[in-house]
Amino acid sequence: MDWNVELSTLQAIGLLVDYSIKIFAIGFVPEGRRPSSSTAWLLAILLVPFVGLPLFLLMGSPYINRRRHRLQAQAREMIDDVQKDIPDHPSCTLPSEVESVIRLNRRLTGFPAVEGKNEGLHTDYAQIIQAIARAVDQAQDYVYIEIYIQSWDEDTEPFYRALERARQRGVKVKLLLDQIGSLKYPGYFGLGRRLSGIGVDWRLTMPLQLHKFRFRRPDLRNHRKLVVIDGKRGFLGSMNMISRRYNTSTRMWVDYMVELSGPIVTSLEVLFAVDWYLESDEVLDFEHPQPLPQFTPSANYLQLIPSGPGYKAEPNLRMYNSLIHHAKKHLVMVSPYFVPDESMLEAVTTACYRGVTVELFVSEKADQFMVGHAQSSYYQTLLEAGVKIWLFPAPFVLHSKFLLADPDGSEPMSMFGSSNMDMRSFGLNYESTLLVAEGNLIAELNQLANNYQVVCHELTLDEWSQRGPFRRYIDNVMRLTSALQ
């Protein structure tokens, strides 16, 4: 009899806890969250509350980020005066729609549009590393590196040896790499010692430091990829500093980096300075301030779009959507991971219905199982709307990321950088992207897309309709998990 009483008591307690979790979730999970994300989290918590709630508290709660948000705000206040006197854009005549997009980003991020000279769109993997190494060899004062994944291997040896030579000349070298992003690759646990051994001042971005009683969400990443040299030369694009095969036996990554000079490099330096302060509490001096921009026809007209959890208004997503709506005739999207939220999916399909030719370039076989299936769950809707989907052939992984709106039109615009077109990049990753409103970079990125198309296979609606029910099921399940933010 006593056992029955105890069992009944335990059942009652379990039921009470179960309903308490569900009532809590319904009232708190949707706050400040997009509908798809709220639905996914609520489904996880309501179906398996004793698993879903801990996961939400670990990866879904916004309160864990408060310290980082506060420090980022402090860092911005310390260095905001670097560009505060620069107008929204150089003194030139721009279409009103282009000006509107620039004003949007200035309000969301604080960065103005400035000049930048295109010193080269580098697309060969080995030559990218060599180009960065050559620029480092020209450094006289400092080199700043912020690259998501780094691995000192046979392919990246020229880059790290260039850093070593720079230190031997007395050049300051500061380096940021993401702990979780780099952790799984060979040599990670000895990388810090090797960097310290050549005199590099390095830090991990957003490290897990439980031994210091400092916790962060383990699903956040600093995904940025940029290099700044003496405040005069910069690199920004899609490539990580790792072997092209990423420790695989068959796959090879396809990437690019853009080499830049001019006032835009100061914007990259400001972004690095904020991130360096977050990890080191050190405020960097700007020893080479750029002059106020004077736009010339031969220059590229560029604006930095930083994004991440510290930016509550999601500037990355808003800028992508703005350019999608801007397209009148032709829209080109290149991304290894295309997992749009509701607003981007609507913008893309609406562009098709407006008569815009929309092309999406993705890998034939994604390098990540969950993201690959989540991505393909959108193909039916995209194909039915009229999107042309180009599949880059395996074993290559198309890792390039850029968007072109009317590249051959009278008002072309583009975005390129580290950001994928997925919900992780819009809400969880710290990204570095550049808006291009004028200049030859748009034509060069358009030519790069044309080069990709030559080797791609076009996925048709008839072909996609032949997929089996098991594939459909897996795609839809993975689509649900992509919204858990």
UniProtKB/TrEMBL annotation:
Transmembrane segments: 12-29, 41-64
SUPFAM superfamilies reported for this sequence: Phospholipase D/nuclease
Keyword DNA-binding (UniProt): no
PROSITE patterns given in the database record: PLD
Gene3D superfamilies in UniProt: Endonuclease Chain A
Recorded GO CC terms: plasma membrane
Keywords noted in UniProt: Cell membrane, Membrane, Transmembrane, Transmembrane helix
Membrane-topology descriptor: Multi-pass membrane protein
PLD phosphodiesterase domain ranges (all copies): 218-245, 394-425
GO terms, biological process: cardiolipin biosynthetic process
InterPro entries per record: CLS_N, PLD-like_dom, PLipase_D/transphosphatidylase
Molecular function in Gene Ontology: cardiolipin synthase activity
Chief location of this protein within or outside the cell: membrane
Sections of the chain in a coiled coil: none
Protein localization: Cell membrane
The name this protein goes by in its record: Cardiolipin synthase
